[in-house]
Amino acid sequence: MEELRPTLQPQALPEPIVNAPGAIGLYRIVVLGLVGIAILVVAGTLILAALGQPAPESAVVLGSVAVGALASMLNSERPQ
Length: 80
What we know:
The structure is a single chain. This protein is mainly alpha-helical. The protein has a domain at 38-74. The chain has helices at residues 15-19, 23-50, 57-75. α2 (23-50) runs antiparallel to α3 (57-75). The radius of gyration is 18 Å and the shape is elongated.
């Protein structure tokens, strides 16, 4: 009996990224960078809160923008 394997199809990636060689690696770097920024902002905010210092507004905005951009990149619908 033949084993069924799901075929992976990129859903959120725009067509030029899917077709361009090396673009997937660049996309991965951008996603990891945004995740890194978000993690650093959360960790920094928690450390500042533990020390009794207020978090700078710019750090909160930077973290929010990074999470929003990450959500947009990973959850976009592919145009038909």
